[in-house]
């Protein structure tokens, strides 16, 4: 049975103001209906309970690529503490540290501090999104790569990320491996990157400030444009401020409802390719909040789990599921990778794939992208091309 999270003590550390979550929206929105996976059921002694859990996981991933994860080993109080620390970082980081640790996406990493003025190192238009991103290097070089204010708490953040990676995500990958009818540690051993608390992935403290007036009008209701994540899984802690929307099985944008204590999990492009399209990397975006939350700040904690950097992704053809049911080539990243594979053209390594997207990511409107907008079967797609791979994302 998996052990619950056991955080380090807080004795002797600076006082941290408690984060007060905003009230959830009272509006009756067109909520997406996501499946809920109770991760603790993986430890059930009843084989039928575990079998049903695997089947539900398979259904959730094939239909949505998104799911709620509950009973994963972190208590509400422990989660609260991590939000307290994220708020503390954003409220106490010095101006000197903001400049010293300013990120440089051209490097292919989001490491460090993002200002509220666009997705480049150079200041652009106000977007109201601040972040600090912890990569492996931030965990290894506590003296030079971190804001001074957060250094006393890094044992807690490190332990939290280690638990999310090595317990929560590892157990989730067991479920996904079983859904592919492969041995339990297949995805953990062959696809998940290792080393440090986050492998080749990263942990994010994000704060979305309200967009009002001209800034809101300019963004036309969108804070982060539609995209799929390029890694394995993304673990996002559910928060009461409604902004996350997914492109649902009904082929429309629908908001994700607040589920206290739950992780909102989405499948990344790496698993769509490994699964031969059986798993779906679902498009999602961040929008303006509902009218009764338009003055609320949205604090967010996210762990992005990454695949092995020098690996070139290809379908796990040894999967009995793939051998029996074949590939699923709906519009998505696997379809584009399969086109290159069939042509005998080497696909990018995982590191090349994520770094080219980070280094060129500008969060610009679909109609302003180099590939413009294409229409396929009545659906309009924003078109991009990276390293010979077409990326088409519904508008």
Molecular structure report:
The protein has a single domain, classed as B-lactam Antibiotic, Isopenicillin N Synthase, Chain (Jelly Rolls, Sandwich). The protein has eleven helices and 15 strands. It has helices spanning 47-63, 76-92, 95-100, 136-140, 154-179, 186-190, 213-219, 269-274, 320-325, 333-342, 350-360, and strands at 36-38, 66-70, 112-114, 129-134, 202-208, 222-227, 233-237, 244-247, 253-255, 263-267, 284-287, 298-305, 373-376, 379-386, 389-394. Strands 1-2-10-7-12-5-4-3 form an eight-stranded mixed β-sheet. A four-stranded antiparallel β-sheet has the order 6-11-8-9, with no helix packed on it.
Please outline the helices and strands.
Blueprint lengths: L35 E3 L8 H17 L2 E5 L5 H17 L2 H6 L11 E3 L14 E6 L1 H5 L13 H26 L6 H5 L11 E7 L4 H7 L2 E6 L5 E5 L6 E4 L5 E3 L7 E5 L1 H6 L9 E4 L10 E8 L14 H6 L7 H10 L7 H11 L12 E4 L2 E8 L2 E6 L1
Parallel strand pairs: 1-2
Antiparallel strand pairs: 2-10, 3-4, 4-5, 5-12, 6-11, 7-10, 7-12, 8-9, 8-11, 13-14, 14-15
Helix pairs in contact: 1-5
The shape is globular
Structural class: alpha+beta
Give the tally of structural domains: 1
Strand tally: 15
Number of helices: 11
Tell me what the CATH architecture is: Sandwich
How much helix is in the residues? 25-40%
The CATH H-level superfamily is B-lactam Antibiotic, Isopenicillin N Synthase, Chain
Say what the CATH topology is: Jelly Rolls
How are the strands ordered across the major sheet?
A: 1-2-10-7-12-5-4-3
Q: Low-confidence stretches at least 5 residues in length (pLDDT < 50)?
A: none
- Helix and strand pattern: EHEHHEEHHHEHEEEEEHEEHHHEEE
How much strand content do the residues show?
15-25%
Radius of gyration: 20 Å
Mean pLDDT: 93
The main pleated sheet reads as: 8 strands, mixed
Distance between the termini: 43 Å
CATH level 1 class label: Mainly Beta
